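Quick one - first record:
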Amino acid sequence: MALITADHLKLGYDSQIVASDLSFTVEEGDYLCIIGENGSGKTTLMKALLGLHKPLEGSLEFAEDMDQNEIGYLPQQTVIQSDFPASVREIVLSGCQGHWRNRFFYSAEDRATAKRYIEQVGITDLADKYYSDLSGGQKQRVLLARALCAAVKVLLLDEPIAGLDPSASENMYRVIKELNGAGMTIIMISHDLTSALKDANKVLHIGETNYFGTVSEYLKVRTEDLGGAK
């Protein structure tokens, strides 16, 4: 089933166009890797998927039973995020707030959801520690668990291994692969093509020439038709 369908999207700000003629479909259970040079419009596309940026042209449609507020999002880390003064459990739990309607407090279900994802990403032993005291890889796992609390069917990841050492990067990719295997649809921006494409089943390349299709087909055409895109 198609969860997201984009048809000839044009993205930009005022008169500045950053990407155009983007067409792709995200099916339930997909692992889509979005790649392209810096400034090609990858993050702008993420914002459009989250409802934070309106396309200049084209259409972006979602499945009838899918709410944009139920899309989990793991942004790139910032200094503010790194120094946030809260416990791991509190940060993960805050991801449930997107599901609140007419209430202003965490329910037993919210706490159970947070506990489940804390366990799933392997940070149970860190639950009572302060986020600011964690390593880079541990912080990314915390933010991943928080994003999962917001996600129902789709998880957006913006450079999830940026700044991580090889061991932490490998662990992050393993967790993401397991989540996808359990049924979560993954959409990820990455410059680490060797590792990212190993687990993905689809690729969206944004650039002078756009490409959308399977990983195997992309690897065949990237050098000849996409100008050697990396």
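second record:
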Amino acid sequence: MIFRTIQDKFKVKSAHKFLEDELKKAKRPTDKKGISSIACVVDMDAFSNAEVFQELRKSLDLKPNAVHVIGFKKTADKNGMFSIPFVTDKELGWNGSIENGDFSEFAGRPYDLLINYYTDNRLMLKLMSTKIDARLRVGLEAADSNLNDLIFSCNLNDFTTFQAELKKYLKILKEVA
């Protein structure tokens, strides 16, 4: 038991080091425009209605499988049945790795837009965000501003406002028509 606690503390320390190194890397600008695939990292402890992100597909006039959502829960809920795959704190590995098959598959493809839909400053959420390859990153004001290119100041539970603001700014940036 003591060994497990010490091991977990070292995993967290190595993950913080990995995150710090990733945030120092320079972002590569790209000339590509347009949104055809969206990844969403959602804190399911604070926002339980993660299925609502599928509305973005209709709002932005995207293909049926263009929006991919992965959640984070502090602990696994054995009673709940979730249609959205999620990661827990226990799946933190060495050097910032995330030992979850669903997440590995999720992070294995590139996206045009990453939505970091969380306000809590949690290590796993930040790690998930840095491991996803996305051209444009969007998040909420209370989260770490180093992770996002575009930050919205709205309540976590006010998805309608977030969706309207996202569409407005994507039009301004000429990412959607």
